[in-house]
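--- STAGE predict ---
source: upstream dedup step, 1 unique chain passed
mode: sequence only
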Amino acid sequence: MKVRFVVILILLLSLSLLTPTSIADGLGSRNLRLGMRGADVELLQEYLFAAGYPVAVDGIFGAETDAAVRRFQRDQNLAVDGIVGPQTIAALQAGIAQLQYIVKAGDTLSHIARSYGVSVQELIEANQLTSTVIYPGQKLVIPGFEQEYVVRSGENLSVIAQKFGLSAADLAEYNSISDPNRIQAGQLLTIPTSARAVPAVSRTKSPPKFIWPVSGRISSPYGWRNHPITNIRHFHGGIDIAAPEGTIVRAAASGRVIQAEWMGDYGYGVVIDHGGGYTTWYGHNSQLLVRKGDLVNTNQPIARVGSTGVSTGPHLDFRIKYHNETVNPLDFLP
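--- STAGE serialize ---
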């Protein structure tokens, strides 16, 4: 049985499943623009990513986020000024059409299917999976959910259908519209389950076998926290591993160094591309031992622990990203 939700309810639920994010965390409380930082910027980046405009979700409104905002505004026929105000936010909210679930450690397809009242086969078909193997951090579309879309002034059926990867004819038939040229602003349209908002991520190969980059206690885990300096609630996309200054930081897996430089709040940082969509990030170092373009092996020294950038003491901020989205390193480390 299909369950119908108004778009904003689906938006709230889908975002709460992506990360423990709440609209109350600040998106819309101020206009956002280039150079700004904060939890609301991070939430904006999640909206952009979910709407099909991939950006790093780091809470920093940099050039990448600015470019994504402008592309989105241009695609939506909004004023292309890079400023995220009420109109841009409303358009982003309307663009998220499907309920998604991010796989957690220990999840199985059968468990997820039971939780949402769908079959395993329906999950497999909706996500074009080639096996029942799933991985932490993987996005799954939950089939059987519809949304209602409010027609805006100047929109026609073809424009709306294109937003959701549909044909105008299919959308007209689904809504029993006899004349596709006669739709009105304010009219409610039902978007079928097959509509695409964000392609589901299906991993066709196993992740690299990561090792711990440094030994030490975890001083700050992955997830939501109050920032130790600003005391502002934000999502910490990695784990902080406390270690004495100068301790050798080692590559968690083999790969190519794609960044080794000063990275602002992240201090002296290293980023390694391991292929298959996986990268590892090493921040707040006191010294870098590799350069951009270097090929490194697992366990190879790449940096020394420090407290550069925005930091309260010597530690390594270690992150794993899959297709530029952070995942919990503890789900991948031995």
